[in-house]
Amino acid sequence: MSNALPRIAWIGLGIMGSPMSENLVKAGYDVTGFTMEQDKLDRLAAAGGSAAGSVAEAVRDADVVITMVPASPQVEAIAYGPDGILENARSGALLIDMSSITPQTSVDLARAARDKGVRVLDAPVSGGEAGAVEAVLSIMVGGEQADFEAARPLFEVLGRTVVLCGPHGAGQTVKAANQLIVAINIQACAEAVVFLEKSGVDLKAALDVLGGGLAGSTVLARKRDNFLTRDFRPGFRIDLHHKDMGIVTDAARTVGAALPVGAVVAQLVASLRAQGDGGLDHSALLRAVERLSGARA
Predict the structure, then answer these.
(1) Which residues have C-beta within 8 Å of that of residue 4, sequence separation ≥ 6?
(2) Contacts of 210 (CB under 8 A, 6+ apart)
(3) How far apart are CA 182 and CA 238, in angstroms?
(4) Per the residue annotation, which of 175, 198, 204, 243 is the catalytic one?
(5) What is the pTM of this model?
(6) Is 116 noted as a catalytic residue in this protein?
(7) CA 198, CA 194: separation in Å to the nearest integer?
(8) Mean pLDDT computed over 104-127
(9) What is the rounded distance in angstroms from the CA atom of residue 145 to the CA atom of residue 120?
C-alpha cells in the first residue's frame, strides 16, 4: 500500500516543519527532508524519514515537494537558481509551499514553476506549534482545483480544516487576514489580563469565565496558560508575526482596505521586537501592555 503513496520532499524543519513532516511519516509516507540544521535532520531520520544533503538531492525523486520556511526571501532562495527546487524537481511534480509569504511571491512562483512543468499550491497554515503537533491545523490553499484534490490526502494528515480559497496567492491572502485577527485578538486579551490583574481579580477565575462567553476564542484557549504563567517560549515568534503584519498592512494598502486597529497592533508588535522580544511567543504582547501600564518589566 505504501508504495502507492507519493514520495515527499520536505524543505524546512523548524517549529512547524518538524512535527508536520513527522505526521506524514507516521501516516506511511516516504519523506526526505532538507534543512540547514543537522539536529533537525537527525530528528527526521530518527522519526523514520530520510535526510538529504541539499535541496536538489531532496527534491530529485519526489512526487510532491513541500516547503515550510520563514518568509518570502527564503522561499525564493530555495525555489530559484541552479541548486533550487524548480531546476531539480522532475516535470509533473507538485510543489506545495506552506510558508506564510506575500501573495505576490506565490503568484510569481506559480508562474515560474509552470515553465518547468511543476504545479504549485500556496497552502499556509494556522494553528501554531500545537496545531502542527496535533495535526489539527487550518490549511488555506490557493491554486488549481485539480492540484488541490491531488494534495488533499496530504493536507488531511496535517490538518483538520482544509479549504481551497481561490487562485494562486489566495491562500496567502487568507493567511494574512488570519494573522491580522490573531494579533488583534492577542492584544485584546493582553489588555484584559493587565486590567484584571491591576484590579486585583483572580486571573485564572476571570479567564475561565471569559473563555465560556462571547469573549472566548481559540486564541484565548490556546494562550491562556501563557498569560497565567508568563511562559513565552515560542510557539509562534514575535519576529514572524512582525513579518506577517507587514504583509497584511502592505496587501491592504494595495487593495485599498483600511486597517486602523491592525495598524496600531502592527506597531505594538514592532515595538516589542525593537525591545528585544522578537524571539518570544506572540502572547508576549502582554509584556508590551505591562510596560505601558507600569505593571512589570
Answers:
(1) none
(2) 192, 216, 220
(3) 12
(4) 175
(5) 0.94
(6) no
(7) 6
(8) 97
(9) 11
